[in-house]
User: Which sequence fits this backbone?
């Protein structure tokens, strides 16, 4: 196999798969795509309900945070994907993009011209193959299948009614004109299977002769010569090999992996690199800073009967569910387990919804959350725009040592205040009349004293697995890449994943990461960018003004 390619991509996660697919559409371009994890060959990656196994350690790096000093020094499990397809292979398949104002803030507050909502909406649409919506906000022909839930239980409709009783209006499309409201999530599924970046983007590109994919290949160092990235050192089965890029090295290892690789390569804050014994190649203070993540707190309720998927843990029911799926592509296996939710306001002065709810059709779905003996349901509430900022740092120069991940949760008191208000709102929803036939009692938190609630929050809060921002885009002293995603001060090197977000988006982060990969592919290939979107309601207003 050749060791020289036009482009080398480090990380076959969501963005990496997008880049590999789009760049190799040009037959004259050669691409090497590297993934430290294994292939997405297990059925658990493709059967939607397999998500329940993923947060418990399958196909992940096995990392945890450092003690969180504002959570009574709790150490949180921190799932980061280690498999082809990355987060899109192991997530809950919830397709949400965030709020339009998130991206306008990238432009207006973050100085990222060209990344406002109307600039990036066409890239969301290009990636999307939506089976229901075809309008200004949605695409129907893209590689990623987007569907409505096909196996939601009656308790989901009861949850939607309960949220409306609590004052949250119904919304049929969280990705349309309005984000606020309660309703069914759209899911990244196609033909009753998970639709990941691996299945949607990468697999159709694999037969191309100009694409080489290597799994089990750990990038250990970016090679820099005379101020230019020229390739990567890669470890496969304990053997190190140098691969050279004649055009560019593209880093897509995620919000933890990308800054980690940069710092291991001597690219990052000089003081930190020197303190852990890494020779400084390029002093770039912002690498590994600006870490943002969503943290959620759950309400766990016991059901009055067999109203959730908890009963499927019984062997005979698991067998029946598997047969139903294999024969009819229906039933529990088609469920992502989190298929309904809501966006609403904990702070009435917030510029857009600041709380997201995920309603889980079971108990103990995610790691660290108790499983009930009887059937149960879970409602997660998460604050969407945290003010706290954390870091990713090296423990040593050794690639085998886990990074020091410090999200610094709740370091800003406002974050704690709004998180606790979100928990209170979740309890209000779960106590509404619509859920009375389904919900017997609240099991967690089960307390009301403020001190006890804080204790519960510190004990049960968990990451939503949405880290971003550690190689942020912008032009200030702490930015790492420009709006073209080129690393400041170096040639031939770009970062093209969720780590470039200056501010976290107000929802799940996989769809925005796909969008970043789509736009990055045009930037890298030198193609004209897609024209900014003009929405129908804006056209009507412009027509009205023209006729007035």
Assistant:
């Amino acid at each position: 196999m050749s060791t020289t390619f036009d482009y080398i991509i480090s990380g076959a996660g969501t963005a990496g798969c997008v880049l590999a697919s789009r760049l190799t559409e040009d037959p004259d371009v050669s691409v090497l795509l590297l993934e430290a994890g294994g292939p997405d060959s297990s059925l658990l990656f493709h059967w939607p309900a397999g998500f329940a196994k993923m947060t418990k350690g399958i196909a992940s790096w096995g990392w945890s945070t450092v003690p969180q000093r504002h959570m009574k020094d709790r150490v949180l499990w921190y799932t980061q994907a280690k498999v082809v397809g990355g987060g899109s292979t192991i997530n809950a398949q919830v397709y949400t993009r965030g709020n339009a104002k998130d991206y306008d803030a990238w432009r207006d507050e973050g100085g990222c011209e060209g990344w406002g909502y109307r600039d990036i909406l066409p890239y969301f649409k290009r990636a999307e193959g939506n089976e229901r919506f075809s309008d200004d906000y949605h695409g129907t022909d893209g590689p990623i299948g987007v569907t409505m839930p096909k196996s939601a239980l009656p308790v989901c409709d009861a949850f939607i009614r309960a949220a409306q009783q609590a004052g949250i209006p119904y919304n049929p499309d969280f990705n349309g004109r309005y984000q606020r409201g309660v309703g069914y999530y759209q899911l990244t599924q196609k033909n009753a299977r998970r639709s990941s970046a691996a299945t949607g983007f990468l697999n159709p590109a694999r037969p191309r002769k100009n694409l080489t994919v290597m799994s089990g290949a750990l990038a250990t160092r970016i090679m820099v010569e005379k101020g230019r990235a020229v390739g990567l050192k890669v470890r496969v089965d304990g053997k190190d090999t140098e691969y050279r890029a004649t055009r560019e090295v593209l880093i897509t290892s995620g919000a933890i992996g990308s800054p980690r690789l940069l710092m291991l390569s001597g690219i990052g804050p000089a003081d930190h690199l020197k303190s852990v014994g890494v020779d400084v190649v390029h002093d770039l203070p912002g690498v590994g800073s600006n870490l943002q993540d969503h943290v959620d707190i759950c309400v766990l309720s016991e059901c009055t009967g067999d109203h959730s998927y908890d009963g499927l843990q019984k062997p005979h029911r698991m067998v029946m569910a598997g047969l139903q799926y294999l024969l009819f592509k229906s039933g529990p296996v088609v469920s992502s387990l989190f298929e309904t939710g809501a966006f609403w306001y904990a702070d009435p002065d917030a510029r857009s919804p600041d709380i997201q709810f995920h309603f889980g059709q079971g108990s103990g779905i995610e790691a660290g959350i108790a499983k009930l003996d009887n059937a149960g349901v879970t409602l997660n509430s998460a604050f969407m725009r945290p003010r706290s900022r954390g870091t990713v740092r090296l423990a040593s120069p050794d690639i085998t040592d886990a990074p020091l991940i410090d999200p610094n949760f709740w370091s800003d008191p406002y974050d704690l205040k709004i998180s606790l208000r979100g928990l209170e709102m979740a309890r209000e929803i779960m106590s509404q009349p619509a859920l009375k036939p389904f919900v017997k009692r609240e099991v967690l938190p089960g307390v009301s004293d403020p001190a006890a609630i804080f204790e519960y929050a510190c004990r049960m809060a968990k990451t939503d697995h949405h880290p971003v921002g550690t190689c942020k885009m912008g032009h200030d002293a702490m930015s790492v890449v420009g709006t073209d995603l080129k690393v400041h001060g170096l040639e031939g090197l770009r970062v093209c994943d969720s780590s470039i977000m200056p501010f976290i988006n107000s929802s799940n982060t996989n769809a925005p990461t796909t969008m970043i990969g789509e736009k990055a592919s045009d930037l890298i290939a030198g193609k004209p960018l897609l024209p900014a979107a003009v929405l129908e309601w804006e056209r009507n207003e412009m027509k009205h003004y023209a006729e007035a």
Remarks:
- The first helix runs from residue 14 to 23.
- The domain at 1-69+78-147+190-293+466-548 is CATH 3.50.50.60 (FAD/NAD(P)-binding domain).
- The chain has two domains: 1-69+78-147+190-293+466-548, 150-184+295-383+410-460.
- Residues 16 and 232 are 15 Å apart (CA to CA).
